[in-house]
Amino acid sequence: MSDRLFSLEGKHAVVTGAGRGLGADIAALLARSGAHVYLLSKDAAELDVVAERIHRNGGACTPVTCDLLKDDQLERAFGELPRLDILVNNAGTNIPARLADVTTSDLEFVIGLNIRATFLATRAAVRKMLESDAADDRAIISISSQMGHVGAPERSVYCMTKHAMEGLTKALAVELAPRIRVNTVAPTFVDTPMTQPFFENEQFRDWVFDRIPMGRLLSGEQVAAAVLYLASPAAAMITGTSLRIDGGWTAQ
């Protein structure tokens, strides 16, 4: 019984930003759990590396080169899918800066990827999911952040976009029930090669660890496990929820 609760056997999943980091870890775990995963990224070389990793472990996947900021590419990528059961909106970005120093170009880029592309990918996914009359459980999971629930200095744009993602999730959870479940995963800082240079700054490191009661960072695998849970039959009655894996940051 417990194995079936977390099985994605026969499911088709899309993971955006799947070329590296969290996206690669999420895609690998969904494939290992039985899903055929469509790997979306604008970097074909990175996708090939992730696909090889998945195939080496016996999983099924299809790399799809797609720039989510290009509407025609996004629509084509989803339109050509044979079917869709799970969407993971993982692609996102952050350009930390004090409000007075935020450039208009940086503002538009972060909003474009974190909000606009997430909305359009979700719209395209819902259209594809609703093509089928099957009653199978379908799920949309967006990678939000603890910053979608609190504020922080030098992160006005990032916090704004993640709060928007949380609002979109609640609205869609109500609109799409009972056919499609919609949730977010809201991590604290994740230990990745991209974040490691930030923690070389002692002041930043102290600021982060002073706010995490658990006293440690997340791993990519832990974030992937949270996504798997929300995508699986084990979460069949969970929708409109943010699964915060923040070590207690937002409990204070």
- Provide the domain count: 1
Portion in beta strands: 15-25%
Structural class: alpha/beta
Mean pLDDT: 95
Notes on the protein architecture:
The structure is a single chain. This protein has 252 residues and is α/β, with parallel strands linked by helices. It has one domain (2-191, 219-242): NAD(P)-binding Rossmann-like Domain (Rossmann fold), CATH 3.40.50. It has eight helices and seven strands, in the order αβαβαβαβαβαβααβ. The protein has helices at 2-5, 21-32, 44-56, 71-79, 104-129, 156-176, 202-209, 220-231; strands at residues 12-16, 36-41, 60-65, 86-89, 138-143, 180-187, 242-245. The termini are far apart. The model has no long low-confidence stretch (mean pLDDT 95).
Produce the secondary structure layout.
Blueprint: H1 2-5, E1 12-16, H2 21-32, E2 36-41, H3 44-56, E3 60-65, H4 71-79, E4 86-89, H5 104-129, E5 138-143, H6 156-176, E6 180-187, H7 202-209, H8 220-231, E7 242-245
Parallel strand pairs: 1-2, 1-4, 2-3, 4-5, 5-6, 6-7
Helix pairs in contact: 2-8, 4-5, 5-6
InterPro entries: NAD(P)-bd_dom_sf, Sc_DH/Rdtase_CS, SDR, SDR_fam
Family: Belongs to the short-chain dehydrogenases/reductases (SDR) family.
Protein name: Short chain dehydrogenase
In short:
By secondary structure, the protein is α/β, with parallel strands linked by helices. The chain has helices at residues 2-5, 21-32, 44-56, 71-79, 104-129, 156-176, 202-209, 220-231, and strands at 12-16, 36-41, 60-65, 86-89, 138-143, 180-187, 242-245.
